[in-house]
Design goal:
Blueprint lengths: L7 H15 L3 E3 L15 E3 L4 E7 L6 H16 L6 E7 L8 H8 L7 E7 L3
Parallel strand pairs: 3-4, 4-5
Antiparallel strand pairs: 1-2, 2-3
C-alpha cells in the first residue's frame, strides 16, 4: 500500500519512522523555551546528537514569506534549547508552491559551532 503525504502529520510520521531506524534516542514533542511569550513543541529531538528536526509541509495557505517567518521563529526558539546544537528544518513541497526554495535554504541556513541551521526543501524542482 502506498503512503500518502496529505498533511504535515503524515510527513512527521514518515520522518519519525526513518529517524528511529538510525538513532537510539529520538524524542518527540519536547517543549521549547518560551519565545515572545509562547512555547511550543519540537517535532523530534535526537537527544544524544543534540539535533532537532522540524518538519513543515507547504500548503495553499503558506507562501515563501510565511514559511520563512515560521522558520525564523523556530530558529530563535531552538537556539535557546540546551540540547539543540543543530537544527534541521525539512520543508516538504510536493506541488512546488515555493517560488524560490534555493533562496529559502540559503537565507535561513547557517553554519556555526554553537548552533547550526540546515534548511532543506524537498523535492526541489
Amino acid at each position: 500500500e502506498k503512503l500518502l503525504m496529505e498533511d504535515e502529520y503524515d510527513v512527521q510520521y514518515l520522518i519519525g519512522a526513518l529517524l528511529v531506524g538510525f538513532f537510539s534516542d529520538v524524542r518527540t514533542e519536547e517543549y521549547t523555551p518560551s519565545y515572545a511569550g509562547k512555547s511550543s513543541r519540537m517535532d523530534f529531538l535526537l537527544n544524544d546528537e543534540s539535533i532537532v528536526v522540524e518538519t513543515k509541509m507547504m500548503r495553499d495557505t503558506l507562501n515563501d514569506k510565511l514559511i520563512a517567518d515560521e522558520l525564523i521563529i523556530d530558529k530563535e526558539r531552538y537556539a535557546k534549547h540546551q540540547k539543540c546544537k543543530i537544527l534541521i528544518c525539512f520543508v516538504y513541497d510536493p506541488t512546488s508552491l515555493l517560488k524560490n526554495p534555493a533562496g529559502l535554504e540559503a537565507d535561513l541556513s547557517r553554519e556555526d559551532e554553537e548552533f547550526s541551521v540546515h534548511v532543506w526543501v524537498r523535492p526541489k524542482i
